[in-house]
Specification:
The chain has about 500 residues and is an alpha/beta fold. It has two domains: about 10-180, Rossmann fold; about 185-495, Dihydrodipicolinate Reductase, domain 2 (2-Layer Sandwich). It has 17 helices and 18 strands. The chain has helices at about 20-35, 55-70, 75-85, 100-110, 130-140, 160-175, 190-200, 200-205, 230-235, 235-255, 265-275, 285-290, 410-415, 420-430, 440-460, 475-480, 490-495; strands at about 10-15, 45-50, 85-90, 115-120, 150, 180, 215-220, 280, 290-295, 320-330, 340-345, 350-360, 360-365, 365, 370-380, 380-390, 400-405, 465. The strands form three sheets. Strands 7, 8, 9, 10, 11, 12, 15, 16, 17 and 18 form a ten-stranded mixed β-sheet that branches. Strands 3-2-1-4-5-6 form a six-stranded parallel β-sheet. The protein has a two-stranded antiparallel sheet with strand order 13-14. It is globular. It binds NADP nicotinamide-adenine-dinucleotide phosphate (NAP). NADP nicotinamide-adenine-dinucleotide phosphate binds near residues 51, 124, 126, 153 and 155.
């Protein structure tokens, strides 16, 4: 491949946080995958910025094992060599203003005629976004140059105020439409597939509304705890860490109107329009429609500890590691259709799924089971559909059957499916911001979380403790039972269901 994939085939990436976990586990493997599949710009270089005293050569040696462990392709020497030629290490402490002069000099040497598209990537804590952006500007770098892009890692701020402050500074330093805010869930294969499933199938497009859909569920469960991120997580919690971004983003793709066209602008507009209409139950009803929990030890395992015993977590912490919430989207398409979302750490299995449960039919004197469409996002990717047919034989009765398409079971699909960061980097190099979040959306979602956080103590929302590697607080199950529903999962779908 290669050739005219990008508007500008001359690109220079400047990666802050180049010695961090995200760079090693995701960004370098993604760049190597792009190299391997010939999808980097023809003239591409990346300047890796970190404090540690590497040379480019010692950095190359270090990155080899990370690429080996995390890229979807095995290292082949020729590609790796070509990749190394594009990766240069630059040592600097980004909190020291004097360091930005030498950085400018180095960039000028790499790009003397200023013809490269410079792609800045902040893979650092959000607390450092402002200082880096301001010092880049003071050094005469990134001053509203229409060619420069900036990619910002999640989380985009800690709350509405910090997010607004960050945004204000970024928008003075970079052209606003060139700010690419990451929500890597948007780049997952099956999240992208939500739009194809909805809009490329008349059987779904025609019934994707309140007349036919009984409820929508979005679940994101992890088996891991907070691991080494206790410091960050303890002042964040599941609602800010997962609901504010990933779950609301997925919800918007499931419930939005069809975008006017495929442009980033139209997709963002459609997402924003529906996100502005997301409501949580008001008054006392919130107390029974929001369940928050925190993991404790599992009864039958000695290898785990409770959240409060994790490193860098307050021993009296009241931070939630689980949240289940009933929402509504106040649009003509979905008004009064409950949308249940949940996310948790230390759950019994890792899985992200979107379940659309359709209303029940009544036929031949018999109440049929709900049809269910389940979109499996991760770790398995696929689509499961449960529907009703007549049981074979003389007697008339219904039975529930299913079709189960496992996309990730097919070897070629696993190998050919770019991972989220690969897709995101490629999209950024191609100046396609549709997989990123707009400021309108980020701001709206922070406002939503602030409103929710303000209401929680008023409505006496309790923190429940749940056992590690189980289903989460029993109250989350009861929340649905009160509505005459249940969470769509293996035990509900039956023994034949393949997770
Ligand atoms: N890790 C993930 O899987 C993941 C996933 C989603 C989002 N994120 C987000 O991505 C960002 C980075 O996460 P991470 O896990 O990679 O963090 P990390 O492992 O702590 O890495 C932080 C990076 O920032 C560098 N750094 C810190 N202070 C510096 C300074 N004064 N001057 C120069 N470099 C400095 C560190 O360099 P040193 O090596 O010199 O300390 C390191 O390269 C965070 O916002 C995080 O929330 C991470």
């Amino acid at each position: 491949m290669n050739g005219q994939l990008f508007n500008n085939e001359n690109q220079l990436m400047i990666l802050f946080g180049g010695t961090g976990d995200l760079t090693f586990r995701k960004l370098l493997p993604a760049l190597y995958n792009l190299q391997k599949t010939d999808r980097l710009p023809t003239r591409f270089r990346v300047l890796i910025i970190g404090r540690r005293p590497y040379t480019s050569e010692s950095y190359h040696e270090q990155m080899r094992s990370w690429i080996e462990g995390n890229a979807r392709f095995r290292i082949d020497e020729e590609s790796y060599q070509r990749f190394c030629e594009k990766v240069e290490y630059f040592q600097m402490d980004f909190n020291v203003p004097d360091g930005y002069g030498p950085l400018r000099e180095r960039l000028n040497t790499l790009d003397p005629d200023r013809s490269a598209q410079r792609v800045y990537y902040f893979a650092v804590s959000p607390a450092s976004f402002v200082v880096i952006a301001q010092d880049l500007a003071k050094a005469g770098l990134a001053t509203q140059n229409p060619q420069d892009l900036i990619i910002i890692e999640k989380p985009f701020g800690d709350d509405l105020q910090t997010a607004s402050e960050i945004n204000e500074v970024l928008e003075t330093v970079f052209v606003p439409s060139n700010i690419y805010r990451i929500d890597h869930y948007l780049a997952k294969e099956m999240v992208q597939n939500v739009l194809a499933i909805r809009f490329a199938n008349v059987i779904f497009e025609g019934i994707w509304n309140r007349d036919y859909i009984d409820n929508i569920q979005i679940s994101a469960a992890e088996t891991v705890g907070v691991e080494t991120r206790g410091n960050y997580y303890d002042h964040t919690g599941a609602i800010k860490d997962m609901v504010q971004n990933h779950l609301l983003q997925i919800l918007s793709l499931v419930t939005m109107e069809k975008p006017l066209d495929e442009s980033a602008r139209s997709i963002h507009d459609a997402q924003y329009a529906v996100l502005a209409k997301v409501r949580f139950p008001q008054g006392e009803e919130l107390g029974s429609s929001l369940v928050v929990g925190q993991y404790t030890v599992a009864r039958e395992s000695e290898e785990n500890r409770s959240y409060r015993h994790e490193e860098k977590v307050d021993s009296q912490s009241m931070t939630e590691t689980y949240a289940a919430l009933k929402l509504e989207v106040d649009t003509p398409r979905f008004k009064d259709v409950p949308i249940y979302i949940r996310t948790g750490k230390r759950m019994h299995k890792r899985s992200t799924e979107i379940a659309i449960t359709f209303k029940k039919s009544f036929y031949h004197g018999e109440q049929a089971k709900n049809d269910v469409l389940l979109i499996k996002v991760q770790p398995d990717e696929g689509v499961y559909f449960r529907f009703n047919i007549k049981k074979p034989g003389q007697e008339y009765s219904l039975q529930s059957v299913f079709m189960d398409f496992c996309q990730s079971c097919i070897y070629e699909n696993r190998i050919n499916t770019p991972e989220a960061y690969e897709r995101l980097l490629f999209a950024a190099f191609a100046e396609d911001s549709s997989l990123f979040t707009s400021w309108d959306i980020a701001k709206n979602n922070w406002q939503f979380i602030e409103d929710l956080n303000r209401e929680m103590p008023r409505q006496n929302v309790q923190l429940y403790f749940y056992e590690s590697f189980d289903d989460g607080p029993v109250q989350a199950r009861e929340m649905l039972e009160r509505d005459g529903r249940e969470w769509v999962e293996e035990k509900v779908l039956g023994d034949d269901f393949q997770a």
